[in-house]
Design goal:
With 130 residues, this protein is mostly helical. It contains five helices and no strands. Helix 1 runs antiparallel to helix 2 and helix 1 crosses helix 4.
């Protein structure tokens, strides 16, 4: 039986990074009028984090694909920001955010593909059937 004390640290860090993203989205949605789209995105992000925590294999596979797409978006953000360096600090901020997006996305992709994470999620998923 799998419990939280046996969760691989790489999965723990991936979940923390994703939870921080959920927190930022919640602040954005609730501090300004996020509209229906903001609430839907927030609900999807929460469902993804909960799904990974509960060990759903389909969520793990989907997040791996989405993390590759996120890394690609981050690369495009960095390339776009490099084109407008004359703007100044705003361009540098875009480069930093884009680079962080790439780094976090690739980390999540890597972490969710590791054998110990897959095994832990599988045992967690089976434990949830009881």
């Amino acid at each position: 039986m799998s419990n939280l004390s046996t969760m691989p640290n790489k999965l723990r860090l991936a979940l923390i990074l994703m939870a921080v993203g959920v927190l930022f989205k919640a602040v954005e949605v609730f501090s300004a009028d996020g509209g229906t789209q903001g609430y839907v995105v927030l609900a999807i992000q929460v469902a993804i984090v909960v799904g990974l925590y509960r060990g759903h294999e389909s969520i793990r596979a989907a997040v791996r694909v989405l993390s590759l797409l996120g890394a690609l978006v981050g690369v495009f953000a960095v390339i776009s920001a490099l084109g407008v360096l004359a703007v100044g600090a705003l361009a540098y901020m875009a480069i930093v955010v884009g680079a962080l997006t790439v780094a976090i996305s690739l980390y999540v992709f890597w972490a969710l593909g590791q054998e110990d994470v897959i095994a832990w999620m599988g045992s967690r998923s089976l434990a949830n059937l009881d």
